[in-house]
Amino acid sequence: MRRRRWVRLPGHASRLRQDVDEEIGFHLASRIEDLCRAGHDAASAEAMARREFGDAEAAGAELAALDGRSLRRSQSRQRIEGWRDDIGASLRAIRRSPLFSLTVIGIMGVGIAASASMFSLVDRLMLRAAPHVVDADRLGVLYHEVTVPAMGRITQVSRSYVDLQAAAEDRTTFKDVGGFMRLTTIIGAGPDAREVHLSLADAGFFRVVGVQPAFGRFYSAAESGPTASQVAIISYGMWQRDFGGRADVIGKTIDAMERRLEIVGVTPRGFRGIGVEPTDLYVPLGARTWLGGDPAWVTEIGYQFIRVVVRLADGVTRAEAEARGTVTFRRVHDADQYERTGDLRIGSVIPGRGPESGGEGRVSVLLLVVSVLVLLIATANAANLLLTRAARRRREVAVRLALGVGGSRLARQFVTEATLLCVSAAGVALLVSRWAGQAVRLTLFPAMDKADLVVDLRVVLVAAAASTVAGILIGLAPAMQAWKRDLTVDLKTGARDGGQVRSPLRTGLVVAQATLSVVLLVGAVLFTRSLQQAVGVNLGFDADLVQLVQPILRRNPGETGEARGRGYEAMLGQMRDRARRLPYVTSASLSTTVPFWMNQSVRIRVEGLDSIPNLADGTPSITSADTSYFMTMGIRIVRGRAFDGRDVAGAPRVAVINQNMKRQLFPGRDALGTCLYIGSDSVPPCTLVVGIMTSARRRSIGSEASAQYVVPLAQRAPTGALALLVRTASGDRAYAQRLGNELRSTDPRVVLQPVQPLRALVEPHVRSYRIGTILFVAFGTIALLLSAVGLYSVVAYDAAQRAREMGVRLALGARGGSLVGLVVRDGLRSAGAGVLVGIVIALLAAGTIREFLFDVSPRDPVLVASAGALLLAVACLATLGPAWRASRLDPMIVLREE
Amino acid sequence: MADELELLQGTLDVLVLRALSWGDRHGYAVARWIRESSAEALSIEDRALYVSLHRLEARGYIASEWGVSENNRRARYYALTASGRRHLRAETDRWARYAAAVFRVLEADASGSVA
């Protein structure tokens, strides 16, 4: 009888050859033995056995190779089976405690959704060029940097047609060049009239970007040049909306830019040039002439309105192109003292990186970092929940370890379980962020293309990666703890008592959550304060009460530009008179300037001064307005007088200057009665300063109010644009709509742009502050809630663990109140540690958010402390529940349970 | 040994599987069984036999484990797996039909009908 002792096959490739040799050796020895028994002598038996076997050496190599193959196969099979087992076991564990699993999935879902939504935003703004832009790395936007004394380095994004031509001729530097200009215009008439986004673009624009028409054709260089043809290209969206997506759209006409344009092509779906805002309609660049009737823009370098897009020639680097372009630029601008020393720069076409991008791109990057912090908090939170549960399953784990389940195998299962939970959370998060991303877009970037910001493959990949990493981190926490367990203790005791009461790892996670939350809360508090400051900044005029009315007048056939201008003024005057009769209107005035919208300045000379000193923001701006201007805007006269019935055409000319202009031009002396020579005026009579008014901000909420003076419209006719400003009785938003409806019928030729309060013009300047605040507050709130939940779960668990101790204390006469204090103190110690560390981090990181804040110090002690206090207060609330429960324990019941 | 027959390709695998169908054996026992049951009419190099064993293992038809032999030496034992048993049945069946067909042809007369 043979005895058999089964041993494991070699687990290592190094032993394969050894085993094979042993097997062959056994065979030969057995054969020789048999042959000897049959009568052969030892020598001949060995020779015979070896002959029968064949080449033993070659056989050994061949067999070892075969075994290597089967070893590898069985290893991979085992691995797959192992994973299958792990996933099966994890799914069972998840199903066994659905509430727990849903909580973890919910917490991680919030964290991943926050990061995924923010990533999709950053992706659009900072990482990727707009759709249909080919090879964006070789593309650039031309801009010029010019140093102007008193203004410093200024960046000019808009270029003249001369600049565009100069760049286009430089074929060794630029492979292709195109130019465009965006504006909004009204198409249609009467009640059907609506505002559309329009681009004037040359044929090169489509070529340089690399886009192909979805339908029809793009116009040619000849059609789009200075003598523009009446053709138009519509967007895919407009094609679908207004033309039902029908093929016969080509050859149809559309009325825009006061012309009847023939539609020749359709841009592909999602194409929006190089920006983030959609364009509905493209017309030839030469249509610039139709706007003012003046073809001077073709030759004058002063007409700067074109954004120039270039594609670098093969082999030319950005720096080389900038150097060569600068030479060309200086030659073209030789006549201008400042521009002739300027530099040409080539900016990125990625929306958030270009020279003209607002703060949105950088804010979105900051917020992505913030959302990752939220994800970290969620991860710490989920890890804590899993730890707590692992502690409850301590006995089960101990039994499995005692039965010989490897520690690494156990760890793998924890990690698998956590990863499965996180992947489910990522799935939930992606569904949520589909919706949340749209919400973010609508509230924060209303102008952004609707087709954008949908969750795409990249976002899915980022979410999947985030969830896997988070899952591994979360799973490792309980796995690490299972590893260094003392089995005998765990086996002897139940889940209730024994083992350590408080785990340093769990406490550490609570502190980490509190730390990160405080950092976010400090950010939220600072941003909120900053938004308050930005919104509440004293603009110097009543932005909420003053409505801007700016109609467009359709041109009569054969009408000259001059006649049209007079017609426009007359019409606007009628409109003003009509508005004054409305019951909710307190005042109305025509004005040639509108703060944050349109400004005008002309040369000015002051009697008694040799020259105008260089002012912080250039020449003082001039406004021609009605007598009622001051009242309408809410600007006070601080000295002298406002305009009145005396100041008519032909009467002595007068002006009212603002305090800022007074301070800068007439320091230390009385400005009243001073003589101004405005524009081309050079001989008396001059314009007399008769009053001084309060200053108002005109360009940005950040900088000081600029120098401004007002002259009566009756004495100085408008040379450019003119608008109607109407002051309503209150800031009721409904007034804008009512006003529009009542003024529209003034003239049948009128196309009325939407009436809007001046606040709406200021809003874009506040937007990046608002975006930051909304998202910071949202993320801060999530963080606060998550850490409250995390603290609650740890405190509640620890309190339950110490039930026996509490029972003993109560039995010995401790009062409930002292136990409440005990538990709350424990919780607050963790939270307090987090607050301290968090505040230190917030103070250290202050520099990074300084640029995003308006008039708030990132180290403002009151604000920083209030964020810490808020967290402590919430932590207090989170611990009160478990504490109260502990104080209500019945010592008899607790002690009998033992 | 002039009567020894060369083995057809693939046939050895079937013989090895058959040898293991009686129970677990080590390689030498398989060789001895084939030698004895064919009355030494088949010429099989032992090396080829081992290659067959290891190849069958790599394909999952047989499994091997180390054990201790009759004379108390460490030896590698082979056992049929479930899929090996299925494979043996299929191959035996195929062999029987193949042999029958060949025999029918060899015993047929000129007209093609079996006598």
List the quaternary state of the chains. heterodimer
The parts of chain A where pLDDT drops under 50 for at least 5 residues are: 1-10, 495-500
How helical, in percent, are the residues of chain A?
Answer: 40-55%
| Shape summary of chain B | elongated
Distance between the termini of chain B: 35 Å
In the sheet with the most strands of chain B, the strands line up as 1-3-2
Helix/strand-derived category of chain A reads: alpha+beta
Largest interface: chains, residues each: A-B, 32 and 30 residues
Overall radius of gyration of chain B: 17 Å
Output the radius of gyration of chain A. Answer: 39 Å
Biggest beta sheet summary of chain B: 3 strands, antiparallel
Q: Main beta sheet of chain A: strand number and arrangement?
A: 11 strands, mixed
Q: Structural class of the secondary structure composition of chain B?
A: alpha+beta
| Number of separate strands of chain A | 24
Along the chain, the helix and strand elements of chain B come as HEHHEEH
> How would the global form of chain A be characterised?
globular
Specify the number of helices of chain B: 4
Strand content of chain A: 5-15%
Overall pLDDT confidence of chain B = 84
Mean pLDDT of chain A: 84
Number of helices of chain A: 26
